[in-house]
């Protein structure tokens, strides 16, 4: 069986992080079981093919609904169409757990991972507002003295 064609990519361009995959494989097996390197490579290739298969079918489901963005429902329907219906409940539960896990996590950005006091956050917010005002005024900034009664610059 030929590997699935991936739009604009050669087979060598598409892979999964092998170290991560090997870790997952090792965690799924009893400690006394060893897996040959070529068997690990084969498992990684199977995972890539599975992802390609599910992605392709999800795209088909999405297209039939005349949508342009693949949604979780499309992936679940693709699993069903491809004969993996018995996994849908477990996949959906994992998806819901992922949503809960990422709900409170920062989305990344300049300040992710930095904890500030409320005062520090207010100062940072004021600085960002001042930068935005300056950009809107084509770089012409007018510095105003802060008014302690108002609680902010401006």
From TrEMBL:
<protein>
    <submittedName>
        <fullName>Protein Dr1</fullName>
    </submittedName>
</protein>
<dbReference type="InterPro" id="IPR009072">
    <property type="entry name" value="Histone-fold"/>
</dbReference>
<dbReference type="InterPro" id="IPR044255">
    <property type="entry name" value="Dr1-like"/>
</dbReference>
<keyword id="KW-0539">Nucleus</keyword>
<feature type="domain" description="Transcription factor CBF/NF-Y/archaeal histone">
    <location>
        <begin position="15"/>
        <end position="79"/>
    </location>
</feature>
<dbReference type="GO" id="GO:0005634">
    <property type="term" value="C:nucleus"/>
</dbReference>
<dbReference type="GO" id="GO:0046982">
    <property type="term" value="F:protein heterodimerization activity"/>
</dbReference>
<dbReference type="InterPro" id="IPR003958">
    <property type="entry name" value="CBFA_NFYB_domain"/>
</dbReference>
<dbReference type="Pfam" id="PF00808">
    <property type="entry name" value="CBFD_NFYB_HMF"/>
</dbReference>
């Amino acid at each position: 069986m030929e590997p699935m064609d991936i739009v604009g990519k050669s087979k060598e361009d598409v892979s999964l992080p092998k170290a991560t995959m090997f870790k997952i494989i090792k965690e799924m097996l009893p400690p006394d079981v060893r897996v040959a390197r070529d068997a690990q490579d084969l498992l990684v290739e199977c995972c890539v093919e599975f992802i390609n298969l599910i992605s392709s079918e999800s795209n088909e489901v999405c297209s039939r609904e005349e949508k342009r963005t693949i949604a979780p429902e499309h992936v679940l329907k693709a699993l069903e169409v491809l004969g993996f219906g018995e996994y849908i409940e477990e996949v959906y539960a994992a998806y819901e757990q992922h949503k809960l896990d990422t709900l409170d996590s920062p989305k990344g950005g300049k300040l992710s991972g930095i904890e500030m006091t409320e005062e520090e956050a207010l100062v940072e917010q004021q600085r960002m507002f001042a930068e935005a005002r300056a950009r809107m005024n084509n770089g012409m900034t007018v510095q105003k003295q802060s008014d302690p009664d108002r609680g902010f610059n401006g």
